[in-house]
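Entry for flavin-adenine dinucleotide complex. Fields follow.
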Amino acid sequence: MQATQAGTARRSDVGELQADVLVCGGGVAGTMAAVAAARHGARVVLLERYGFLGGNATAGAVAQFNSWQTANGRPVVAGLAQEAVERLRRYGAAGEHETFVMSTGHRMDRVEYAPEVLKLVLDDMVRDAAVQPLLHASLLDVSRAGRRIEAVRVLTKGGLLRIRPGVVVDASGDMDLMQQAGAGFLSLDEGEALQPATMMFRFGPIDFARFDALSAAEIAALARRGYEDGALARAALHVARNPCSQDGWFNVSRLAIDATDPLALGRAEMEGRRQAWNAAAFLQAQVPGCERGRLVAFGTQVGVRETRRVAGRHVLTAQDLLQPVQFDDAIAAGAYPIDIHPAAGGELEYTSLGDDHAYQIPFRSLCPDGLDNALVAGRGVSATHQALAAIRVMTISMAVGQAAGTAAAMAAQAPRGATVASVDMPGLRRVLQARGALLA
Ligand SMILES: Cc1cc2nc3c(=O)[nH]c(=O)nc-3n(C[C@H](O)[C@H](O)[C@H](O)COP(=O)(O)OP(=O)(O)OC[C@H]3O[C@@H](n4cnc5c(N)ncnc54)[C@H](O)[C@@H]3O)c2cc1C
């Protein structure tokens, strides 16, 4: 017994890693935050539990970046997000910018990409910016001194590592670091439910000449039949084409869970694969152009749309987006509509925007209440359920990540004890614009 204890004590010796900025979570928001912080001169550690970056964009295989512009074509997202797409194109792994008609009849713009190649592009961006990636490493816990995060402990293959960052950016999607730090979270209103998760699956080969010839009404009718027959978990046949091959990633399953519940998450992975398998059989049997196809791959994990939303200095609301409110501290813009997937039955709840309608995201929505050296980015920012349903898309997540990383570097470079809230706002906005970001 004593020998075991002594051995355990030796094994749990904690290594140290230095960082001005620690980014927790290497999804698209976190990776852009890390790259932006490093390009602004900070020593950055990027912590990611998988062996690759991208989160929903790679592990979840979402496969299309939506909404770069307003309905009449005014660009609202560029900066690092645009750079990622240009790098994908150099690998031959992203399509052209295009507008398509959704099964709901709404028009939407997008760039399709190959999720496997995005892993490589994010590696390149992180390597070129001299970010220190810490892959295969999961957040363990956080220690605080008053309003500041002092240290973060991480579980790695080599044992525990302690990082004492000047500033942290929580981009873990589920806001795991904020949870460990004791931050507050926003709750759902009466009648609201978390958006469901989806197991994406790759299916092919597809004869796209025939598939794309189907009208939106024909696709909607096929999807409705699949749903009513029980072959599809929701009435959709939504596919993002793989630019490198004759197949695509289908977004048709539906898993109504709280993905921070570990048992529910495991059940959803299994149920997601079952739904995907049934959907693939339906495609093969019923959908023109899909007769020769088969299920080629599942996403590495279910794609998670929504879990925790941090309580921040400003809670972004649907009204802020629809009006739209012009914020003095705007650090990113967007034009994606409010798009709520119901947890069961029914169609998407979809609030289209006017032709030239864009909205802004204020810096204060990235600042968690009660913490002086922490920011959040991506799908956990301080926003209502409805507002998050718009700003959660990857284009906007990348733009917010770029802003969070730049601000984190600025705060880390300020005199000791400076707070993220005191970052020079005109200065931050100038730097973002100089680096290609669009703020309106
Ligand atoms: C099914 C589905 C379809 C979607 N469709 C579209 C679409 O068509 N177009 C579009 O633009 N957007 C779409 N979205 C939205 C978009 O994909 C996400 O909102 C966006 O990718 C969120 O990025 P993120 O970086 O904030 O979070 P995530 O992608 O969730 O990344 C979080 C990262 O943190 C890591 N992590 C989590 N916890 C820990 C921990 N404890 N320790 C270490 N690492 C951790 C994860 O592994 C992950 O890499 C879709 C989302 C889903 C789920």
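NOTE: The pocket of flavin-adenine dinucleotide is lined by residues 24-30, 47-50, 55-57, 60, 62, 64-66, 138-139, 171-174, 176, 198, 200, 251, 303-305, 378-379, 392-395, 397 (CB under 6 Å).
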